[in-house]
Amino acid sequence: MITHMSMTTDEQNIINNPAMVYSPYNGPDARSQYYGSTYPQPTIQVQIPRLATNQVYYPNNGSCQGPAIHNYPAAEPPYIPQQQNYPAQAAPLPPTPTSVNANANTPTGLSVQSPAKANPPLNCQMLLLSLAEEYFAAAHGQGSMLALARREVEMEKYYKLIATGLGCLEAVLKNWRLEPHREAVVRLRYATILYEETENVMEAETALSKGILVCERHRLVDLKYNMQHLLARIMFTTNARAALKFLDGVIQDVEAYKHVRWIYAFRFLRVSLSLDLASHQDTVAALTHLKLIAGVSKNHGHHAIFATASTLEALTHLRHSSSLESIEQAQRALAAARSIQMDSLLARVPQLAALTYFVDLCCSLQNFDPAQATLKMQNMQAFLDPAIEDSHWTTDGRFSVPITQGDLPQASKLHADIVRTDLEGSLALELNWLPKEDIYALAYLLSGATVSYLNASDGRKGEKFLKEGIRMLGDDHEVPKTVSQAMTAAASRQTWRRILRCYMQVYLIFALCARTEWPAARFRLSQVKETLSDLGTHAPEPLALLSHYLQGVIHQGTGDLASALSIFQTSSLALPSATNLTPRSQVLLDLSILSALNTILILRPPTHPQHSLLAPLLSALSPLCLSNPSKSLQSAYYLILATTHPAGIVRTKQYLQSALQAAKQTANTQLTCITLNFMSAKFFKGVVGGQAEKSARASLSLAMKGGDRLWWSVADGVLGIR
């Protein structure tokens, strides 16, 4: 619907003085990035046209003959109408000047020389394209702040800027017959903004479909692949399986034409989308594509791509399972990635090196090897400390994986968002991961998890690492406001940072509980629950269950056994039944085992009303604990058997010996202390002798070393009985 209104003063200025352009952003001209620099570049002055909150302004018909106001629903995201009241025939393009020279003495800063005219008419096509980029830049400049504050007035201005920019692009597409390359670029830009900023999926798909036809007709290969890449991501938001099927077809076409760089791009996209689905079938498919990428890159000598595929393969193995087989496969993939670490191209990708160190450390953490994990943590820190000054870090998390040029053709220099030519002159594949600040925060989390078992005896280094990571992420979950990005991207990053901060808080709560610092643990847990409430459906299931389990631990530690038992017996923390064949993640399975072990400790007294549940629980736990890769869980299970299971002295000694050996393998001070205290009370009660006193003093020393005041008191009591 178009409503013609009388012209304002600003609009009269545009018509009367074609060299003056009003724009909301007084930054560098962004047109050349997307549309080239063939046309004159007008001077940009800051002045935002005053529009109603649900209207978008752009010159009518691209002819600068009067204003047009497009009405949009006030409560809906900005939507570009399908029907426009334009003339049946597009306005012709104005003549192109022969040369454009900068001249500071002219009113616009430009001096246009033409054999026909000294002052050619204003090129409204390029005017609209320039305005669109300026509107987008102005909106994205405040995207990070809006993701934090989300104030209604500022958000309304943000969406008005985005809608106005989209209107400018749409006007260009509908009113001019563009040169094929430029038309494809404009359609790609239009669809990208629709995908990032609105919910107009059908409109974006339509724009891409038309653009792909233009590219096929004029053999614009790189632009076509860019559009298909975006189209697959858009389709994935509505129909994941259809998107994967479409992507498989594109990969076949790319391989048939032997466009190697795009084989990498589409297969990496296929891996990313498959891992988002997280099913076993899709995980296997992701591993298959990563191995194919590694094979192609190895044959072509693209070492950086090979290292990237191998590192992602190792990470995928760890995500898939915590079994020893998966850990071994991950380590083999890491060994393959490090086999070419001396390649000079890898020095340009500090993000890839950081990911390699992270995955290697996680292998040792999953394998419960504290000594090896500590060594790998030190190696990771030794790499990250000097790498903080590397110039290849980016503020938005993007990084370029270089591809050896060889006999590959040059990538398109215009709108090369996926495959481009980097500053060193070689082809590079653009990938998205984490910006530098988030990578270092993640390093603090891994460091804190690595040394948490030595927290009390090592100057509480684990707590210091975790607190520093929490400080880096900010108490108010700030996203750096200097990053120019879409509000949706800034909101996604903010959500990820808040989730990471919650995991740091959870590890810190475990450390506080081990030292019986119950008030501090309760305070930290309240912060986690508040964040989870704000996240809503974005909160990951393991994080919610961890907070739920820790609530029960705090109740049990402070003597509220009834509340603790009610939490440990909830369905979300129940052991998997024999008839339930649905696979569970290792985190959820471990939490259910820990809840059952704590339940047994509460039900152990014969006078407890639910004491009859003890035997079934022990029977259900036996296969789960004995097959669990965690030695600490096995130690706790053997200790529970020794204290609750009716058995003779010989069997009890065997249980205690197994518990003590498993605790020592993982350097678990708390379990070792508890086991020695029980041995002293069970076998040396009332016994006077060197062995009895040695056992009691060892228990007291471990309790003091671990900072556990409860077992410190128990060890003091056992020693006093001697």
Automatic annotation (TrEMBL):
Swiss-Prot/TrEMBL keywords: Cell cycle, Cell division, Chromosome partition, Mitosis, Nucleus
GO process annotations (BP): cell division; chromosome segregation; mitotic sister chromatid cohesion
Source species, domain of life: Eukaryota
UniProt keyword RNA-binding, yes or no: no
Cellular compartments annotated: Nucleus
Gene Ontology CC annotation, any one: nucleus
Keyword Protein biosynthesis: no
Similarity annotation: Belongs to the SCC4/mau-2 family.
Protein name as annotated: 75k gamma secalin
Species of the source: Lasallia pustulata
